[in-house]
């Protein structure tokens, strides 16, 4: 089949907010005890664009970091620390034809929104469209997980890949026999109340989540009591939080967010820091019921649920203290791909 050189192929996958359960999706905990996560995707995305070529040359580019890597043929890819995420996706899908491939994300790696894994899902979405592969959301999520954790040896769990592939509000179980995604059919008024009362604040710094996760995993394997207890508590709270949302108990959901954050901080000392603690205490004083970092911790975004009459005060206080409140809405759809004609 001749490539259609007159069209670009694009894909986008939504970033996610993880409300509770993060850490229980990191091996070996789910294989030994079973893990679960409650998360929702938002209208911030990772993108991939692909242009087929007549020759066998491969060009990879990150628009965020202004990085480019060029190869005479896909078979000559080398992992060297530059655009390895893109290279791993191309290699895993056994690309043999020439193409130009670009990526872009609405959030940087280390932001706590699952940016790296979401970008991998978007890459697979674009390559799937180009290569005409029959992948289900489960297939995409598992492939993204394998590429990151096995091929690239990046530490982490598997919740981000599933969130980006499926989209929406999901209760995701990580069981020894496999992963099960259960979409939550929340009432419309519950969703709109959450959007009204949730604040997403950028704390002004990112972190290397892999380092935190590596230490957390080491502590769990060593049987450190505080780590094991925190993971067990987070798993139980995830079920409680799911119940609160299904019943429309928004204040209860906020209180559980606070409890989850307190337990999460016991997973590793690097999950929080004095800057984050200060901003969170300020937010609670001004009217936030609860909140947590939606990723591994250490920096990036912080999610807060406020009293309805204090949302503006919490936002103003955080902005004054150096935080940046970022608007968002929930996104019900997972990874999407399409093609568009090249303009001349």
UniProtKB/TrEMBL annotation:
It holds the Pfam family GHMP_kinases_C. Residues 85-168 form the GHMP kinase N-terminal domain. GO terms for biological process: GDP-L-fucose salvage. Keywords: ATP-binding, Kinase, Nucleotide-binding, Transferase. Residues 241-322 form the GHMP kinase C-terminal domain. GO terms for molecular function: ATP binding; fucokinase activity. It comes from the Bacteria. Belongs to the GHMP kinase family. This is GHMP kinase. It comes from Eiseniibacteriota bacterium.
